[in-house]
């Protein structure tokens, strides 16, 4: 049956045109209920014993998704009109609903009411879109009711009073969410309900939340019409709010309109904005902008101190610094930064948060309801007020809580309990917290995704070998060099001496796109996950294990499919020619970095594989020197390596990660392959290539490094990456660790490298500052990075092997993919660091330790130290907590020294001190590593 829908629209030229769309209606769309006596029930998704079938309206799905995800809620019909409206209003909730509908263990069925001839509703004159959708939902509920003819009760769940009233008038059973949940006799489910904002805060509760009766009142947010007008006139400035990871009372908003960051001091000026919110900011008068001052080391105890809200400093947390492991302080400030206050929220970034509960003094209310404050593990998140009926059971648990609203009369936002993670302090619980906090998807791969995989055992077939697009390179002596125990081997190498004195060098990368086809469920899942995540004791894969550890992994002594970049190079590592080909390889050895290094160092070994390694290493050294000569930076980071107990998975030892020549050799050829591929794909696809850039750091960002260098008599030239690289090379002192410390400090000042679509920026902006490369991309790790999968498709299309997928013609979609990759890449990094921090706490819990440390930053009441042996940074206090410097200590900011007023003791930046390290718990459920002078 055909239904025509027509509407008028204005063209770009200003003309009015009528658009007619055909809407097909069918009568054979099944209802999904096994009890149905009319439909084909072979594809039924609801329970055969279902006594009640639920239909939710759009607002219930949008606002009560935490309840809907609970296993107690089942036998749900999700109407297509609801699904479409949810998709338009909140993509995150839409994805969660889709996950429920595709989960074979949950009884959710999507019914296409908009395409069923009995449930489709035509537009009525004068009816709003919202009213039309409500009517469509009621019509579908009524159809189900008559269709099932009493075999099961059909219940419409809506909190809309008018929608409920009309439903009952039309003979439909309808209830509010709360009344339905109460009927289940599950009081714990009531904790999951989102309370309407109007019921958020009762005035008698407000005073209970304010210690010392200190009144905290926030300004009302400006309406969107006023914000839009203010942005247009330049009165307001838009940007993403980033809260300082180590001082939750300080944030910044990157504003393109003024070309600088606006610093926001104190909760009052943040005005109920959360980290990650898109906000509108009004600049404060210039006399209220803070000059640079010495700032105290922020600590957990400061959270209840009102005066800490006004401590000036920098929110230089992300994306431009690398947070040190175990660090707990505030980064440097910059003089005369614009200060402002939030006047409105343009887009909220609320999600679920992990933490624990603090009971409140307020006694339990009716029905055993207790009031509690939720304390997030992430200090950037304010405490959240919740009501719960299970307080006693939750006090020793890590839980997740979602925010519902934040009334301007309440010091705290209001939220609701979502779920219990586990017992506080349990390693598995705390690891799950790390994953949830960083939005890492740990769900098992769905049956639709797994259906895309080839059957095991998998072998290279005769068809693969006969395929004209694929070159047979099995005769080459190919090998891989990876970290010990690596199973997801992305890359392999070969180096063959040629009769003319040159070398043929190949980089062979797992041909993942041979198995991951564009637009499939497997590809969609990999696109969303974006990257594999590496924790201390486990790996969360981007692709299913059969691909990562078997089919795609370039293991030794098995034939595998690859995408190869092959150069002819002179003995001076000059590239004469480059070619790209799909290939079949057979690796002869899967070496660890230690094994490869041992082979190269053992002069008795003269076998062909060791000779290849030495030749590659010689070429790599020349390439590295040439890259550094161009201005590439050799930076350093405090990477930590744990030795893990194979049974308990607890850390047995901890130390700095050691970089060997073998590591640098592999890195050099991977960099060269990435640059070669970037040049190739950009030449063919100048508008839709996925590249990676590293923006040049500003002078302000390098200020902390320059100040530290000046204090020790070191003159760093930061006019270019080449000048900085040369300066770092010449920064050599008597202390063998001196140069590495300076390089670590330089790393902290860098911007974050990001993926981008070539059509979004001009060529000068493509620069990768750290590598001193005009062009760069990621090609060499498609097993664990989706960016590389995209680049493989671009390279294959540039060679005429395959057609470019249609997504590459959609500029906004490509930009969205790049944004997601940056988000996922950063979250994976943060999760890895948090995992290191967790295992550091576990390691030192039973091992108080005295060790050597270096001072890296001076503050008014102490200094930050870096512990070389363990790669840990943290604060050492010289004055009692609560004192903001001064007293018996004097700070010389210029010389970066702190000394006693009587001159008896002084400390200076980069000085060696001896410290004691132990785990303390100054606040319940927030253990931390405390560093103190011996």
Please provide a written account of the structure:
The chain is of the alpha+beta class and 934 residues long. The protein has five domains: 23-190, 5'-nuclease (Rossmann fold), CATH 3.40.50; 197-214 and 350-424, OB fold (Dihydrolipoamide Acetyltransferase, E2P) (Beta Barrel); 234-347, OB fold (Dihydrolipoamide Acetyltransferase, E2P); 447-691 and 773-828, no CATH class; 848-933, OB fold (Dihydrolipoamide Acetyltransferase, E2P). Helix content is 29%, strand content 26%. The chain contains 25 helices and 37 strands. The strands form ten sheets. Strands 18, 19, 20, 21, 24 and 25 form a six-stranded mixed beta sheet that branches. Strand 31 and strand 32 form a beta hairpin. Mean pLDDT is 83; it is low at 198-212, 291-296 and 299-334. Residues 52-165 form the PIN domain. Residues 298-336 are annotated as: Disordered. Pfam families: OB_Dis3, PIN_4, RNB, Rrp44_CSD1, Rrp44_S1. It comes from Malus domestica (Apple). Its main location: nucleus.
Please supply descriptive tags for the structure shown above:
single chain, 934 residues, alpha+beta, Rossmann fold, OB fold (Dihydrolipoamide Acetyltransferase, E2P), 5 domains, 5-stranded parallel β-sheet, globular, nuclease, exonuclease
């Amino acid at each position: 049956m055909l239904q025509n829908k027509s509407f008028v629209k204005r063209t770009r030229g200003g003309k009015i045109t009528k658009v007619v769309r055909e809407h097909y209606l069918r009568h054979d769309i099944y209802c999904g209920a096994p009890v149905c006596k009319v439909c084909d029930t072979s594809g039924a998704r609801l329970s055969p014993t279902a006594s009640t079938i639920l239909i939710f309206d759009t607002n219930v799905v949008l606002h009560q998704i935490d309840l809907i995800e609970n296993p107690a809620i089942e036998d749900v019909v999700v109407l297509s009109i609801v699904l479409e409206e949810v998709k338009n209003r909140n993509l995150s909730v839409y994805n969660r609903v889709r996950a429920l509908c595709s989960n074979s263990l949950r009884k959710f069925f999507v019914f296409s009411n908009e395409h069923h001839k009995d449930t489709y509703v035509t537009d009525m004159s004068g009816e709003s879109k919202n009213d039309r959708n409500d009517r469509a939902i009621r019509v579908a509920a009524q159809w189900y009711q008559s269709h099932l003819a009493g075999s099961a009760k059909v219940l419409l769940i809506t909190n809309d009073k008018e929608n409920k009233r009309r439903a009952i008038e039309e003979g439909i059973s309808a209830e509010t969410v709360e009344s339905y949940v109460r009927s289940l006799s599950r009081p714990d489910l009531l904790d999951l309900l989102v309370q309407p904002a109007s019921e958020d805060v009762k005035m008698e509760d407000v005073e209970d939340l304010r210690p010392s009766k200190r009144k905290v009142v926030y300004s009302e947010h400006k309406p969107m019409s006023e914000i839009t007008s203010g942005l247009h006139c330049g009165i307001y400035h838009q940007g993403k709010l980033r809260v300082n990871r180590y001082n939750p009372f300080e944030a910044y908003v990157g504003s393109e309109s003024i070309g600088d960051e606006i610093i926001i001091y104190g909760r009052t000026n943040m005005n109920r904005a959360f980290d990650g919110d898109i906000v509108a900011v009004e600049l404060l008068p210039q006399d209220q902008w803070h000059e640079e001052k010495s700032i105290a080391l922020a600590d957990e105890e400061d959270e209840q101190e009102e005066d800490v809200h006004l401590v000036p400093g920098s929110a230089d947390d992300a994306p431009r610094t690398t947070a040190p492991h175990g660090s707990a302080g505030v980064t440097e400030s910059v003089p005369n930064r614009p200060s402002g206050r939030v006047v409105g929220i343009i887009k909220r970034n609320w999600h679920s948060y992990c933490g624990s509960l603090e009971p409140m003094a307020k006694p339990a209310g009716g029905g055993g309801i207790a009031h509690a404050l939720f304390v997030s593990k992430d200090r950037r998140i304010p405490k959240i007020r919740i009501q719960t009926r299970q307080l006693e059971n939750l006090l020793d648990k890590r839980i997740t809580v979602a925010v519902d609203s934040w009334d301007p009369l309440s010091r705290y936002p209001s939220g609701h309990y979502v779920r219990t993670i586990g017992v506080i302090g349990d390693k598995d619980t705390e690891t799950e917290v790390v994953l949830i906090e960083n939005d890492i998807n740990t769900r098992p791969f769905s049956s639709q995704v797994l259906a895309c995989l080839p059957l095991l055992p998998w072998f290279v077939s005769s068809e693969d070998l006969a395929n004209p697009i694929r070159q047979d390179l099995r005769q080459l002596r190919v090998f891989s060099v990876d970290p010990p125990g690596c199973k997801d081997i992305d890359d392999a190498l070969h180096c063959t001496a040629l009769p003319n004195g040159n070398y043929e060098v190949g980089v062979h990368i797992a041909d993942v796109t041979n198995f991951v086809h564009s637009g499939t469920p497997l590809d969609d899942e990999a696109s969303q996950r974006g990257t594999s995540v590496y924790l201390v004791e486990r790996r969360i894969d981007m692709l299913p294990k059969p691909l990562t550890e078997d089919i795609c992994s370039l293991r030794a002594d098995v034939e595998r499919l690859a995408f190869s970049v092959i150069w002819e190079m002179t003995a001076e590592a000059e590239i004469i020619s480059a070619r790209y080909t799909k290939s079949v390889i057979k690796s002869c050895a899967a070496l660890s970095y230690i094994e490869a290094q041992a082979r190269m160092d053992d002069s008795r070994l003269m076998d062909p594989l060791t000779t290849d390694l030495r030749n590659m290493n010689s070429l790599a050294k020349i390439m590295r020197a040439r890259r550094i000569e161009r201005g590439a930076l050799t930076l350093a980071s405090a990477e930590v390596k744990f030795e893990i107990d194979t049974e308990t998975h607890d850390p047995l030892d901890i130390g700095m990660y050691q970089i060997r020549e073998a590591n640098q050799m592999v890195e050099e050829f991977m960099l060269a392959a990435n640059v070669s591929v970037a040049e190739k794909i950009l030449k063919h696809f100048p508008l839709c290539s996925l590249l990676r850039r590293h923006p040049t750091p500003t002078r302000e960002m390098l200020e902390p490094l320059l100040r530290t260098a000046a204090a020790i008599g070191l003159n760093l030239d930061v006019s270019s990456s080449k000048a900085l690289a040369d300066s770092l090379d010449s920064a050599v002192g008597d202390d063998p660790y001196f140069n590495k410390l300076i390089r670590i400090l330089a790393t902290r000042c860098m911007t974050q490298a990001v993926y981008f679509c070539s059509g979004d920026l001009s060529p000068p902006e493509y620069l990768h500052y750290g590598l001193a490369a005009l062009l760069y991309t990621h090609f060499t790790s498609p097993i664990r990075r989706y960016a590389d999968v995209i680049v493989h498709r671009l390279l294959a299309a540039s060679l005429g092997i395959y057609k470019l997928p249609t997504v590459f013609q959609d500029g906004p979609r490509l930009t969205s993919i790049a944004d997601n990759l940056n988000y996922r890449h950063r979250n994976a990094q943060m999760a890895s660091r948090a995992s290191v921090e967790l295992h550091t706490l576990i390691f030192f819990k039973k091992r108080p330790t005295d060790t050597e440390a270096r001072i890296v930053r001076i503050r008014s009441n102490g200094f930050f130290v870096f512990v070389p042996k363990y790669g840990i940074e943290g604060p050492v206090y010289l004055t009692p907590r609560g004192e903001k410097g001064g007293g018996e200590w004097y700070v010389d900011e210029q010389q970066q020294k702190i000394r006693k007023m009587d001159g008896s003791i002084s400390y200076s930046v980069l000085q060696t001190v001896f410290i004691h390290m132990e785990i303390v718990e100054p606040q319940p459920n927030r253990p931390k590593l405390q560093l103190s002078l011996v």
